[in-house]
Write a structure and sequence with these properties.
Radius of gyration: 18 Å
Order of helices and strands: EHEHEHEHEHEEHHEHE
Shape: globular
Strand content: 15-25%
Number of helices: 8
Strand order of the largest sheet: 3-2-1-4-5-6-9
Helix content: 40-55%
Largest sheet: 7 strands, parallel
Structural class: alpha/beta
CATH topology: Rossmann fold
Number of domains: 1
CATH class: Alpha Beta
Bound molecules: NADP nicotinamide-adenine-dinucleotide phosphate
Length: 262
């Protein structure tokens, strides 16, 4: 028997945090499926480069809408979604990917501003975008929300209290949301990566390249494309299948604590 696939050709995928790493890799993966793309992040220059590269790779055959968006501002989220041209309606897939870890300090020594950046982006930002887009999906009777969680949403680790807290919350939100959406056709998936080599650690260590490199030392980590594959798998399952949770680890990682660095 052959796996039947849900076609994304000509459908719209909206990605937050598309300017690098997993979000950018997902833009390429969905483009390969023939989807039209709404790409957002704070760094507009990176989005413009991505859009140019996609245009040249796909000979301008895809519709691409890019726009700067800081998901921490609910008014900007509303304005951004209102500004998406009608030719991109309806949104078929919402990929809530924008997120970050900031710092790796013990809770009792950490900086409150670091906490706020994580909570405002990973948690409140995801909620603002979801609150604005999901009603449109409900109205349309179709859609798929894919949240990027983390292994940190299953296993807390030292120095990660607030980041782990936000990703635990994302997992809980994904599960509750699916309950809220029962009776609609809308799917909800929580994709949970382990260590992926992206700009993530550079952001966490505030530009300290040595510390960032140390995270992946001796490991064969995942790359962004590995997670894009997992996201695409969720999105292309037949309409009656909902991949509720998908934990994806490098073969050299067994848990948040167990890694083979030989
Ligand atoms: N890398 C890992 O090991 C790993 C593991 C598990 C889960 N994750 C999760 O995967 C997701 C993507 O991370 P990544 O690894 O691809 O890291 P990344 O390369 O640093 O990408 C993060 C993306 O989020 C965007 N972003 C950050 N703050 C934002 C804000 N306030 N508003 C809008 N966009 C914002 C960034 O764009 P701008 O800076 O241009 O805004 C960037 O495009 C995150 O949710 C992260 O928590 C990563």
């Amino acid at each position: 028997m052959v796996r039947s696939r849900y076609s994304l050709s000509g459908k719209t995928v909206f990605i937050t945090g598309a300017s690098s790493g997993i979000g950018e890799a997902c833009a390429y993966a969905f483009a390969e499926e023939g989807a039209n793309l709404v790409l957002s992040a704070r760094r507009g220059d990176k989005l413009a480069d991505l859009s140019r590269n996609l245009d040249s790779q796909y000979s301008n055959k895809l519709k691409i809408f890019i726009g700067e968006l800081d998901v921490r501002d609910p008014r900007k989220v509303d304005d951004f979604i209102s500004s998406i041209p009608s030719e991109f309606s309806p949104i078929e897939v919402l990929l809530n990917n924008a997120g970050l870890a900031v710092g790796a300090d013990k809770l009792f020594e950490a900086t409150i501003d670091d906490w706020e950046r994580m909570i405002d982006t990973n948690l409140k930002g995801l909620l603002y975008v979801s609150r604005t887009v999901i009603p449109l999906m409900v109205e349309n009777g179709r859609g798929h929300v894919i949240n990027i969680g983390s292994i940190a949403g299953r296993e807390p680790y030292p120095g990660g209290s607030v980041y782990c807290g936000t990703k635990h919350a994302v997992r809980a939100i994904s599960r509750s949301l699916k309950m809220d959406l029962l009776g609609t056709n809308i799917r909800v998936s929580n994709v949970e990566p382990g260590a992926v080599e992206t700009e993530f650690s550079l952001v966490r260590y505030k530009g300290d390249k040595e510390k960032a490199k140390g995270v992946y030392e001796g490991l064969v980590p995942l790359c962004a494309v590995d997670i894009a594959d997992a996201v695409l798998y969720c999105a292309t399952c037949p309409a009656h299948v909902n991949v509720a949770e998908l934990l994806v680890l490098a073969n050299s990682q067994a848990s948040a604590y167990h890694t083979d660095r030989s």
